[in-house]
Description:
By secondary structure, the protein is mainly beta. It contains 1 helix and 26 strands. The chain has one helix at 4-8, and strands at 17-18, 33-34, 38-39, 53-54, 58-59, 74-75, 79-80, 95-96, 100-101, 116-117, 121-122, 137-138, 141-142, 157-158, 162-163, 178-179, 183-184, 199-200, 204-205, 220-221, 225-226, 236-237, 252-256, 261-265, 270-274, 280-283. The strands form 6 sheets. It has a 13-stranded mixed sheet with strand order 1-3-5-7-9-11-13-15-17-19-21-24-25, with no helix packed on it. The N and C termini lie far apart (65 Å).
Amino acid sequence: MRTFRDVMGSLDGTGDIDCSNMGLTSLDGCPEIVEGSFNCSGNRLTTLDGAPEITGSFDCSSNILVSLEGGPNKINGDFDCSDNRLTCLRGAPAKVKGSFDCSGNRLLSLKGATKKVKGRFDCSNNLLGSLYGSPLVTGSFNCSSNRLLSLEGAPDEVRHDFDCSDNMLSSLAGCPEFVNGHFFCTGNRLENLKHGPVEVYGDFDCSGNRLTTLKRSPKIVTGNINCSANPITSCVRTNTRTSNEDHGRSCMKLVHEASSRVCCLGLNEHMHLSMTSFPVYAAC
């Protein structure tokens, strides 16, 4: 056993502590409180027993943790437990004022996740089949590269980007209606955009799916639109308006000249549109 005390000696906890990449197997001997950030990443820890309460960020990434029990209860900065062997988030901090990164684990469930994360919540590259247990409110949300069949259980409020790419989604049901950043759903099994976001204040990327239509596409997209690598048969309109304005938000219509690009490359269509000035797109 190689403990914190063995390697770091006796510290009083005034200021940041970095004990990363030192071969630690135990946090025994840590100060009870650290007035700053604590970094114990890149060790051989299997448990967080003995971890201090902190006033800054906490990084326990790249260990062999199977549980977060014993870790700090409140994080005023970021919390990083990525690249471990976690199957759930039981024992996670109750409050995280920064970002929460649990990517690259073996998560089957988000049970135990912090309910409010002000920064980014990243649960990508896991084994998740469901998003139940997600934070209720978060900044950006990244659940890409999992085994998701549904977005039900996703956060009620996402204040920045939303990324659900590279899953097995056949529906966008459960995603937020309004995204104040980029929205990525590339690399899924979507045949339509029903139940997708209504307004996206950033880029919208639905490439690499099975889309044959852009029905139910967002009403507003202020960034770039990428619907490439889909078998789309009807795509972007820039000068006409459908007589049926409310029938399925059937296409994208340029309503204000924009500095943006719409890319739709499918089996039946190849289209690139380049505009100048500020982008605003609406479905028609």
